Amino acid sequence: MPGVSSFSGKLVRAAVGASAGLLSAFTALAVAELAAGLVRPAAGPVTVVGGAVIDRTPAAVKDFAIRTFGENDKMVLRLGILAILALFAVALGVLALSYRRAGAVGVLLFGVVGTAAALSRPDSTGAGDALPSAAGALAGAAVLYVLASGAVSAGAGANDEDGARGRSRRRFLTEAGVIAAAAASAGALGRFFTHRHGRAAAASRDSLVLPRPASPAPAVPAGVRLKVPGITGFTTPNSDFYRVDTALTVPRVDADTWRLRIHGTGVTRPRTYTLRQLLARPLIERDITLTCVSNEVGGPYAGNARWLGVPLAALLRDAGVKPPSQGGGADQLVARSVDGMTLGSPVEDVMDGRDAMLAVGMNGEPLPFDHGFPVRMLVPGLYGYVSACKWITDIELTTFDAYDPYWVKRKWARRAPVKTQSRIDTPKPFARPAAGPVTVAGVAWAQRRGITRVQVRIDDGPWRDADLAAQAGIDTWRQWSYRWNATPGGHDITVRATDGTGQVQTEQRARTVPDGATGRHSVFVTVT
Length: 528
Fold this sequence. Notes:
The strands form four sheets. The chain has a five-stranded mixed beta sheet with strand order 2-1-10-5-6. Strands 3, 4, 7, 8 and 9 form a five-stranded antiparallel beta sheet that branches. The chain has a four-stranded antiparallel beta sheet with strand order 11-12-16-15, with no helix packed on it. The protein contains ten helices and 18 strands. A hairpin with a 4-residue loop joins strand 5 and strand 6. The protein has 528 residues and is of the alpha+beta class. The chain starts with a helix and ends with a strand.
């Protein structure tokens, strides 16, 4: 039947064209990975384009991504970029069957996008960062141009397998197989070079011996840790500590080559430190709870760890810095990461006596790479986006009027003290506990103020005081528990906390943007 044969031929032609397009995209990415492994792993096209997408995404959309995908948001973005690339590759492959040059030019245009993204990144090291995207695009365009020629012959006609078209198809498959093998080899070699880049960093971390603190953390009081199944532990293991940042590729910084520069307004003695020089200073050790501003009411983005670090205020004073209350000219400290991220902290807060530090250790070991090795900043009482710069490499003193850091440019607040919050860890939402005694428990935090009271309400009943664990300090969260005599049926359980100033956690609901969520956490359970 001619009509069926014609339709079948078109399907074969389209499939061959799509295959050529996908193979060209695979080649482009593999060659780009090889070039990035040789030049700088963070300059790979998926990484730089993904970073550009993150930078241009509205704050509300980012907040939705974190709320929906959690710490998998970066994986979802990568998969999305690859899916879009695959769709365009299929379209360009089909286009190349009729317009070979147009298809190849389309691949080159993707290279232009990657090149522009690489050169516009805040951590760009120069023209060399354009090489991965450019090399990948050239390789992909060449592959598509070559395969499209054979694909035209291979895809024309659906029945002449033993004739010239059959030989063309076999030639096309042979060429495609050779190209696929070469691309896979290039990608594997690129991953080898990328891993080699990180070996020196891993070796520097493995060999790092942390000094003993001049000021050890106070002993944790007895009774800090409640023995309640399902409650969040007082100390969060490093492997469970939340990670929220914009880095698609976690920086792996060699501690031996790392440097920290302190400069800017009011800095009369600019300084540049090596890690060895920082470690030679008196270190402090403290239990401190960190909280992400993207944490919804009842959310998981808070964690408590024992940090070891260099007091930040002392470093600043050595550089000649004075807080505004003492006549200093700078009211904002801008911390810069090796990947170009900028965070702004109030100088007054950093130097007001709290345990602001440049942390080098976390729970008894050097910082994990995910959490900022070799050095990160933290300031108790402030949300992470205005204080907790990971992979820090530069501190500039300036003013809030003169400079807007990364998140402020995206409509987040300039100043963001942590708000009083409490969370129910157990029972979980929609749990079905048996009637009778049920332990309701969780954690509450109000860094720099501490928690003095936690209350629980069942349905619309009165607020009842919960039992509080001992408090380790005003900069850590505090466990609590409440014994409830549960009756059959559905019930809402709500919690609220009171901080050390007497301020009761507000019931007014607000989303995370621009300076942190508010409201009271509640869970619904069905008692059987």
